[in-house]
Amino acid sequence: MSDNLTVLNALDTARTQWYHVTAVIIAGMGFFTDAYDLFCITTITKLLGRLYYYDPAIHAPGKLPHSVNNWVTGVALVGTLTGQLVFGWLGDKLGRKKVYGLTLILMVICALCSGLSFGYSRRVVIGTLCFFRFWLGFGIGGDYPLSATIMSEYANKRSRGAFIAAVFAMQGVGIIFAGLVSMIISKLFLVSFGGKAFSTDEVFSTEPEADYVWRIVLMLGALPALLTYYWRMKMPETGRYTAIIEGNAKQAAIDMGRVLDIEIQAEGEKLAKFKAANEYPLLSNEFFARHGLHLIGTMTTWFLLDIAFYSQNLTQKDIFPTMGLVSNAKSISALREMFETSRAMFVIALFGTFPGYWFAVFFIEKIGRFKIQLMGFFMMSVFMAIIGAKYDYLKTKEHKWTFAALYGLTFFFANFGPNSTTFVLPAELFPTRVRSTCHALSAASGKAGAMVSAFGVQQYTQDGNVHKIKKAMLLLAFTNMIGFCCTFLVTETKGRSLEEISGEDERKNETQMKSTRPHSGHQDDGWD
User: Fold this and answer.
1) Contact between 23 and 235 (Cβ < 8 Å)
2) Fold type of domain 6-273+282-502
């Protein structure tokens, strides 16, 4: 087949229109909610320890036991991994739109229920919290493959990467708001009910009203999802899914013509040939011959990236005191500790995390996904190695801002790097029939890496042990270098149609060309 379907060509060559921006906002608000819900837990875990795990016999502020802390911060990631696989598969089987709204409903209900407790004992409170955060994560997981797939299938080929990256960049806004909302709520309660320092009054340094604070912070995560639901339900099914998978090019033309200013003609005979050429399933020799290396590449790089990325975000509450950004726990009250932790998280997110996402949006179509991912992994490795090697020097009071700058740069290059590109590439590399599932497999691999962080790397940072934190940083630097090497398994996708990249238009994709071309000593690694 020498030329593409008209419906697909029209989508690829359509000028950038207002509906493209609307789609970014609708999909992006889901990611805003995802990030807020996943990362606001960082601001409240120390408060939960003070409220429910204070032991008067040891004369120290209450602290979540390691196993409890790991489950409170990690259970949502377990749910996210599960949700990615389930909703990713459903997105290919039932259609993107049919299951898109369900993820939001689940997020709204479980965010609200996360702030409730079915009893007073710490076992019941923590158990209830973990139960609903698992199902909250399940809904969040569905948003990853569906949002990426929908945006990639709506966008034109000139700005597709920037649009997908912009959807993901809303994660940065969500992280900022997780810190900001926690900071505002804790400050309001601190002004009204602020207690004495722990060293002055061990019991009432944990303000009784603080039990409302963590619940309000968690429940507010339902608001953006609720506000987005109506607009998400108004989105039509993507033209690519309707045409290629459902075989209805006429309906695809009607749907896309309703929201985009494009003219499309139905092509029955060409569509039948197009469908016939792309019937192979995920678990087939044909798929692995065409896309096997790319799938291994997207899964390994996202896995390795999330070990580092979630280690940064989930353990920052333990590193902030060492950096001098948060006061010693005994010298402040529970609400004051939450306020200072939230403030530090907000500042790091605003000046380190947030700019990185938008640098990726602005440069992804100029530099390309491949180079940005290589650069990001390499720079993260360098800065984490410096922090690990010079940790004793950096943690001194006079060097705390140098420490904060280096720490912020690891966030910047994570986001102007593999945290953005590992989300974009799986939405582009694979054929329409399995695109959502392949993105889900890649994202789920990432969440497996996040679980390594939550249940493994956190063990090194929770006690503030300098030797263990150094070891963790050097381990993460090494992890990033492996990610740098695994990046060579994927290819550059900028400026090409989805069908050209995946080989759906019956042209050979990059993997097939490498396997059939005579050896010339040159490898197309995406730099050309």
Assistant:
1) yes
2) Growth Hormone; Chain: A; (1.20.1250)
